[in-house]
Amino acid sequence: MNIPSNLKFAKSDEWFDAASGAVGISDYAQNQLSDIVFVEILVEEGKEVAAGDAIASVESVKASSEIYAPAAGKVTAVNSGLADKPETLNSDPYGEGWMIKIEGGAAGELLDSVAYEAYCAGREH
Amino acid sequence: MTYIPISPNERDAMLEKVGVKTLDDLFDAVPKKHRFPELSLPPALTEMEAAAHLADMASSNESVREHLISFLGAGAYNHYTPAVVDHILRRGEFYTAYTPYQPEISQGTLQAIFEYQSLMTHLTGMDVSNASHYDGATAAAEAVNLAYAQFRGKRKKVVLSPSLHPQYREVIRTYTQGLELEKVGDGESADLEADPEALTSLVDGNTMLVIVQYPDFFGRIHDYTKLIEDAHAKGALVCIVANPTALIMLKTPAEMGADIVVGEAQPFGIPLWFGGPYLGFFTTKKAYIHKMAGRLIGETTDNRGQRSYVLTLTAREQHIKRERATSNICSNQGLLALASAVYMSTLGKTGLQQVANLCYQKAHYAATELSKIDGFGLCFNDTFFHEFVLCCPRPASEVNEYLLDHGILGGYDLGQDYPSLANHLLVAVTEMNSKEEIDTLVEILKEME
Amino acid sequence: MATTSTSLSAKIVEPTIFELSSPGRLGVTMPASDVPEVGLPPKELLRSELPLPELAEVDVVRHYTRLSKFNYSVDDGFYPLGSCTMKYNPKINEDTCRLPGFLYTHPLQPIETVQGNLVLMYELQEWLKEISGFAGVTLQPAAGAHGEFTGVLMMAAYHKQRGDIKRTKMLIPDAAHGTNPASAGMMGFSVVTVPSDERGNVDLKALEAACDDTVVGMMLTNPNTLGMFDEHIEEVVKLVKDCGGLMYGDGANLNALLGIVRPGDLGFDVMHFNLHKTFSVPHGGGGPGSGPVGVSERLVDFLPSPLVGIVEEGDDDIEPLYGFVTPKHSIGRMKAFHGHFGGGLVRAYTYIAMHGPDGLKDIAQYAVLNANYLQAKLRGTYTIPFDRICMHEFVAEGRFEGSDVRALDIAKRLMDYKFHPPTNYFPLIVHEALMIEPTETENKDTLDKFAEALIKIAEEAKSQPELLHNAPHTTPFGRMDEVKAARELVLCCWLPEGYDSEK
Asked: If both were cysteines, with which of A10, C2, C7, C214 could A70 make a disulfide (CB 3.0 to 4.6 Å apart)?
């Protein structure tokens, strides 16, 4: 389970990089979803979002999930390459798998990498 | 014990293994005061008795093949179904099979429905077809669901053509009663003779979908290209509800720019059957695949390198999305999609063109001859395919009563749905109506006082 | 779209109808026109191409016959699919639903000309009312999910009519079928999930906490998808009704209750029937189904229209005249025309007529006996999480200590033993669930063989897990690449080059 220490995590499994404003889904999430086949990003550049707003929709072969903004702010970039290569979310969730970038607003309730690791460990049943 | 293959000895051995004394003991969890009710139903018939009883009921009807000459359409049509269709449908491997969730042992169903999907895209010109909806009306309602999901609920208006089948408009209203949508365009004061472009004035930035019919409910053929361009300019989607027989001859809705094309495929190998089950086809542009409800079959390979087919993109559906699903639909019309595929394959391109041509020619002959009768005329001037509106000198209901006395189903009394058209009959003619039948209709109407 | 295809590199077992086509071949042809010819519509209104197949009749028949042989079906063998009730489909039903008097009647014909159809529908309405203890029945909905949506619409209309508009929450157990929350969602309701307790009943404490005046009602399947008859059904119903909610019954599992108990008597307000489960209408490879809905007295006025009723009373000499009636506060029309008359209603009518009250009770008794017998045979080899007398189905866990074999592998391996797998991965609350419903139309030998196969597979899971991971081995096709199907979407047939041109 890959959990980079420089990132913050939401309990709904999004990661947030305060430095770049990038948002994506965690390694735990892509593993749970398994083979992702469809990504739809619901916001455009310039849109204001609140923490907790749905910003994307993801479907895998056996599951479906909404992705929520881990922070508030203005959307400054959208990774449009994901539409053609949804599997990037599986292969590189923290790198090429970034979904949008947000700038300027307050973060929502986020866990640091240590707390997120513990949280994930507690969910295995 | 009609179909139950367990003998009394076997039953006793099984009860012992389970650890209860009698069958009734299995139901201890059921509240005692409600257990084992006496059902007031007729005693069981044997197969022979049931066959006779059902035969009696069926023969007490007057059907369109055995007793009545029919010119009744209005959404369900009397077409010839080649014998091959029912022979294939009666194969137990097809009709007693389950939904193909285990593709390794369901390739018959999966490939047949994949071919059905392909046939429907070729017929409509659209990019993709799902594995079907319950009927044309619910398919139209699902088009509204798709548009609603596409705009994520932010656009709330649907423009309905007044010449969309009345029952389809009713179903759309029933389906969307929980969504607080504005439905406009088909009010009582709607101008039935206006061009389709008249609907454009109702399309705005809040409109998610415009729905029109092709040919329309009155049988008229319109080119919706301009309407679609204008609707697209406002960001709205357009759904065309199409008759499949007409599509064999006419310009495809795809060429006009339609986003969604749905319709009733009953004319393609499915009997009139007093209204159901029928077959709703649903096709769209590529862009809407993920918002489309219903089952979808895609091609792949198996682990032996064989080309095969599976239910795909299942994460769209209710068993995964649950309350976030576009629609709750679970099943498709499986066996009937197979029927329509076999129909299209058996007649083939040439046979289907012959069917469409016969419908067209006979309908035009009927229209010409009927409009020569004193007091009767063609109500609308537009080009039509196989249905047209006949103006009568008396209420259509009276004309139909008179015709029925002579063994003829005259057509649909439009006064039932359109107050301004009480003297108007919607007449449908198919390849099943011989020249003699049409001449008989004309003769009998001539004699009407 | 999608004229690319895996067919170029994969082995083609059976070509598509397009690949078998050859321009100029004729199938069934029509007679020449017998009326004077008129010109076609203007060219701008005509299509230019019609890319449809051209085959001779023999080729069509062979193609579909070959395809049919790749299918497993009830006529082939056992289908222990939980909550699907894959019982035998009687052949007499195939004949009765195809009687010409039924086949060739148009839905819009004058009622006087179709009294046979209307009497059949009316009697079926009455029979379904009697079987389930309801005051009204609609035969219009096309399938179970359609019936559910109908039910939810009626529940909403009922509350709205009483001005009770703050009710927006639907209570749904965690074991529920996906169509339940989806139906509630279509109405704009939010879903409150109610957990099950360790005996597989609805958790009463959780239910009590959730019941308040913002609840529309509860959608409950009883017996539930674990095969359990809720031991506190009366308390569940009371809690929901006391807070002003309505009880919706998902009738998918009615096979266990015929002649045993009537949902209406237990206090349910509305329930959909699955004629293609309980009443032997065949599944057709995915449809058509038929989903009539029964309602209690307080919902009768909200039924969809039209309903079949007596429009003119008869007397000693004349039969009553049957026709269509519109309930006073009808929610509207659920589909065009009257419902699945030919495929569903006639078959179900024939079926009920051939069973009578005693025959129906036999169905439930033997469906439940068969399920309990299988459960007893598998106990010890498979973990049964809710281990008490079950109804017509039960759930086992498809996994074993010390093995990485999962329900999926067991399901696939069963096909090598010539059985269709049970339902797997449902209900969601059991890990690696295998939901097994034998139905009453299986004999003891079949059940014994099935149990033996499952026990043998349990052994194989420990001694030869790879055999299971790669199963099935003896079926016409092997495991599918589902990821490829979803990522490389090919949803239409590939057209060979030069498809349309005469050779």
From this structure: A10
Give the total number of structural domains in chain A: 1
Q: What does the pLDDT read at residue C56?
A: 98
For B207, list phi and psi in degrees, rounded to 5: -90, 125
Asked whether B207 and B155 are in contact (CB, 8 A), the reply is: yes
**Whether residues C340 and C382 fall in one domain:** no
List, as ranges, residues 158-217 from B with C-beta within 8 Å of C: 165, 167-168, 170-171, 173-175, 177-180
The CATH number covering residue C133 comes to 3.40.640.10
**pTM for the full predicted model:** 0.95
Residue C1 has pLDDT above 60, yes or no: no
Could C491 and B128 be called an inter-chain contact, meaning their C-beta atoms sit closer than 8 Å?
A: yes
User: Rounded to an integer, what distance in angstroms lies between the CA atom of residue B89 and that of residue C284?
Assistant: 9
Rounded to a whole number, what is the distance in Å from the CA of C227 to chain B's nearest CA?
Answer: 12
Question: Where does the pLDDT of residue A125 fall: very low under 50, low under 70, confident under 90, or very high at 90 and above?
Answer: very low
> What CATH number belongs to B84-342?
3.40.640.10
What helix, strand, coil percent values describe chain C, rounded to 5? 35, 10, 50
Q: Is C173 on the interface with B (CB under 8 A)?
A: no
C486 to chain A: which residues are within 8 Å by CB? 35, 37-38, 61
Topology of domain B69-81+349-446, per CATH? Aspartate Aminotransferase, domain 1 (3.90.1150)
CATH no. for residue C415?
Answer: 3.90.1150.10
Label residue B219 by pLDDT band (50, 70, 90): very high
Q: C480, B63: Cβ pair inside 8 Å? A: no
Question: Looking only at Cα atoms, what is the longest distance across chain C?
Answer: 80
| Smallest CA–CA distance from B321 into chain A, residue | A64
- Both C185 and C327 in one domain: the answer is yes
Taking a C-beta distance cutoff of 8 angstroms, is the pair B361, C35 a contact? yes
Same domain, residue pair C171 and C300: yes
- What is the predicted ipTM? 0.97
Alpha carbons B8 and C490: distance in angstroms, whole number: 53
